[in-house]
Amino acid sequence: MNARSGSALTLGVAVALIAGVTLGNGGANVMPVFVDDFATRFALSDSTAGLVAATQLMATAVVTLLLAKRAARPGRVRMARLGLAVSGAGFLGAATATDSVSLVLANLVLGAGLGAVYAAATAALAATDDADKASAVTISGVVGVTALLIMGVPAANHDLGEGSGFLLMALCCALAWPLLRRLPDGPSGPAAPDAGSAGTAAAASARPSVLLLVGTGLLWSVTQGAWSYASVLGRQHTGMSHSAVSAVLAVSSVVALVGAAVGPLCARHFGRMRSMAAFVTAQALAMAALIVTHDPVVFTVAAVLWQGCQLAVLVQMLAAAALIDPTGRLVASLSGAGALGTGVGPLAVGAILDGAGAGVLSIVLAVGTFAASLPLLRMTVAGGEATTDEQPQPGRVPTV
Fold it and tell me: Cα separation of 288 and 366, whole Å?
C-alpha cells in the first residue's frame, strides 16, 4: 500500500535502523533507571534529578534539530558514528562522575552525541520503500532492546556498583558501530538533475509548522515526564520493590509491541486520524491511572496499556511524516521536537510532583496529551493523502 522507491528493508537495514534509533533515543527510554541511579548516588531531590535528566535530553533535542537538515543528505553513517564516539565518551564520564557538576557535564556531552545518532537514524527511516513497515519493525526492535537495557542497567548498578549502568551504555555504543554501516543514506542533494520544481516544492513542504513542532514537543514532554518518574511512583505508591518495578516497566515495554503491530492495521481499516485519536485517548487515561493508583495490579495494567498506545501513536506519526517527506528531514525535525519535549518533561513533572502531588499531575498530563495531539492528528491527514500518491506531482505535495 505504501510501497515507493527507496531502500529495501533487508535484515541489515532493519538492524541498522533499530540500533541507531535505540541508542539515539536511549537516554530518554532508559531515563527512569538513570534517574533512580544518580538520585541515589548523589542524594538528589526529585526536581534536581529532573534537572540532570533534562540536561541530557535537551542536549539530544537541540543537536537533533540542528542536524535535521544535514541528515537529509548523504553521510548519515559518518554522522551516526561520530555521535556514537561522543556519546560513548559521555557515558564513561557519567559512570566516573564524583559530584553533581561533573555528572551534569557528562550528561550534556552524551546527550549531544545521542542527538547526532538520533537525527541520522530517524531520517533514514524515510529512505525505505515502505514507511509503515519500516516504522513498525524499527519501533518493535527498539522496544525489545530497550526492555533489555531497562533490566540490564539497574542490574549492572546493583552487581558492579553505582554508575556501572553508564558503562553498559558505553559498551552498547561500541557494539553499534559496525551495525550502522547499513543505514539507508539520503538523496544526493537538491542539485540532482531531475529535482527541478518538484524538489523545491518537496523541500518547502518538509518544513513543519511551528504549531506541529510545539504539539510534538508537548506530547513527548508529557510522555517522557511521566515515564522518567514511573519507577519512583511505582515504588512509592504501590510498595513494590525496585527490581519489581523495573521488571514491570520492562515487561510492559515488550507486551506493548502489540501496539506497534496494531497501529498500522487500525490506520488501514479505520483511517489514520480516527485510529490515532483513539490511541491518544487511551494513552492519556492509562497514564493518569498509572500515576494515581496505589494498586500493583492496576499499575501493571496501566503501564502495559499506556506503552502499547504510545507505540501505536509513534508508529503512525513516523509513517505519516516519512510518506509526506521521503528525504527524512520532516521525520528528523519531528524527532528533534519530540526530543526537546522529553528534555523539558522530567524537569516539569518533577516540579509538579514536588509542589502539587500525584493527583494534580495526573490531570495535567492527561489534558496535555489531548491538547498536544491536535496538530499531529492534522498531520496524519496529510500523510493519508501522500499514501494515495506514490509519485506526487509538484502541485500536490502535502503541506504540513
Answer: 6
**What residue has cell string 522518567?**
228
Supply the pTM of this predicted model. 0.72
How many other CB atoms are found less than 10 A from the CB of residue 294?
Answer: 11
Residue 242: CB atoms within 10 Å: 17
Is residue 186 left, alpha or beta, with left meaning phi > 0 and alpha meaning psi from -120 to 50?
A: beta
Task: Give Cβ neighbours of residue 132 (< 8 Å, ≥ 6 apart).
Answer: 1, 2, 264, 267, 315, 319
Checking if the pLDDT of 24 tops 50, the result is: yes
Residues near 154 by beta carbon (within 8 Å), at least 6 away in sequence: 33, 36, 37, 165, 242, 243, 246
Distance CA 282, CA 315 (A): 16
Angle at 92 between CA 88 and CA 94, to 5 degrees: 115
Question: What CA–CA distance (Å, rounded) separates 368 from 220?
Answer: 10
Q: Which three cell numbers stand for residue 152?
A: 540490564
The grid coordinates listed for 5 are 522507491
260-308 tens-digit pLDDT: 788 878 878 887 778 888 888 888 888 888 888 888 888 888 888 888 8
Q: How far apart are CA 372 and CA 285, in angstroms?
A: 15
CA angle 266, 267, 269 (to 5 degrees): 60
In tens, the pLDDT along 350-377 reads 788 777 877 788 888 888 888 888 888 7
Geometric angle at alpha carbon 94, from 93 and 96, rounded to 5°: 65
326 grid coordinates: 521521503
Q: How far apart are CA 130 and CA 154, in angstroms?
A: 36
CA distance 193 to 190: 9
> What is the CB neighbour count within 10 angstroms for residue 89?
16
CA 258 to the chain's CA centroid:
17
For 82-191, strand residue ranges (E) read none
pLDDT of 128 > 90? The answer is no
